[in-house]
Amino acid sequence: MRLDELLEELQARIDAARGTRDRVHSLLEAVVSVGRELDLTQVLRRIVEAAALLVDAQYGALGVIGPDGRTLSRFITVGLSDEEVARIGPPPEGHGLLGEIIRRPEPLRIGEIHSHPSSYGFPAHHPPMRTFLGVPIRVRDEVFGNLYLTDKRGGLDFDAEDEGVITTLSVAAGVAIDNARLYESSQRQQRWLAANAEITRSLLSGSSRLDVLELIARRAQDITGARLADVSVPVPGSDDLVVELAIGGEGEMRQGLVVPVEGTLSGAAYTQGTPVTTADLPKDDRYDAGPRRFDGLGPAAAVPLGTGAEGTRGVLLLARAEGEPVFTDGELDPLLAFAGQAAVALELAERRRDAEQLALLEDRDRIARDLHDLAIQRLFATGMTLQSAARLVEHAGAAERVSRAVADLDETIKIIRSTIFGLRSRAEDTGPSLRARVARAVGEAAGTLGHPPRLSMEGLLDTDVPPTVADHVVAALTELLSNAARHAHATRVEVSLQATPSEVVLAVKDNGRGIPEGGRRSGLRNLEERARSVGGGLDIGAPPEGGTQIVWRAPLNATL
Description:
- The chain is an alpha+beta fold.
- It has helices spanning about 1-35, 40-55, 80-90, 95-105, 160-205, 210-225, 250-255, 265-270, 330-390, 395-425, 425-430, 435-450, 460-465, 465-490, 520-535, and strands at about 55-65, 70-80, 110, 130-140, 140-150, 230-235, 240-245, 260, 275-280, 295-305, 315-320, 455-460, 495-500, 505-510, 535-540, 550-555.
- The strands form 3 sheets. It has a 6-stranded antiparallel sheet with strand order 8-7-6-11-10-9, with helices on both faces.
- A hairpin with a 6-residue loop joins strand 1 and strand 2.
- Helix 1 (about 1-35) runs parallel beside helix 5 (about 160-205) and helix 5 packs antiparallel against helix 6.
- The longest helix has about 60 residues, at about 330-390.
- The chain is elongated.
- About 30% of the residues are buried.
């Protein structure tokens, strides 16, 4: 009997040695498996799967500690189906028992979860759990997150050997996470460099301002994994921002949207001149002003475009989907440098516009000078010749035709002189001309519409249209362009302004969704009243190809 006992004890020790050997072998396999991946998301999932397998736990989770150091920003689980996770609801934030390891980053082993003072219980539809093992994961000198394991199979409690195995795995996991983060950072840096080079080429090739901004927004969206990317610029003379470019999500609904500076994430970045982040944009009480437009989103970052002597020219807003990681300092630093490219694009566009305006003014001055020195003198000489020849014509009909031709030449000379006066008029002497004011209004509307409207002008707008009527024309044009941006959601807008001998006619046509039945018409009533106040009228039509065409007209001899 003594020999049987010795043999049984020897067999138990052999089995224990085999179990230890198998467990060490499994631990080595887990370490190799975890270190093989370079994608951070895959690394985290491999870690929690390996941990649950090593200690034979039914459920496992890995919580990533957020930037505040007090809550969890990500929560990866194994042992629960997608349907079970959806029924449980939002992931835990790190309170209760899970927060115990955040507050005291050291291993924690419990035989009965409900017996711990920090246990708050489970939410509805959460499976019951009894035993618990938690171990922190350190990456260098930083606590990256925690491993949580519950319910060892067979109804057993987690023992000291289980704690040692998971602690060893956590060390390997920290190295694997650090490697994945370094690889991810180097890959991201390469993508930023490639995007910077692409934008520089676009700037030097003479691409339009909106094309460069769209390229910047799309590259920032792709590199950061954001769901949407918006570029907002200040509205002159107000404390608002307008979304000039909207990419991702329901971009067509956000483009052209006017939002206040106060109480918005973009406004905070604009006023502070520094990047501003939030872990949950729709639920952040600090940035709830303006129309609701961020449902289904989570972490967000707003980066100012330019902070030098010229000030902030706009804001780039990036937002990720709900449950995605928050924006880190490592992401914001290259993003801020990248946003500088957008500021360069805006400044370069302004310089190009100034140069084009200067060239236009110089060209207009040359045309006026040529008309005065060449065309008018030749027409005057021709008229004098015809007038002298008329006295030699004996046929009454022919003499009348020559006299009519002389009168026509005289009228032509008057028209050319009026044109010269309009070309040479200066803003500081006579105020901005109607042509210049209309061109400026159309140019400013391009930011709100998201595309430049097509503009055509005809007739003696600067000489025949009275100043008061011209003010009404500009006001009506501004209102019509604003309506097209806010309500029509058009992709093409055409503006036509014509001065006939009797009236001035302003027509704005778009390919939007038209004027809905029963919709608000206060703006149209204001336009109609403005037209009637000067003896004109307002016509609203629908082109065959769709959209809206509004014609505003006023007589040139209006009595005010």
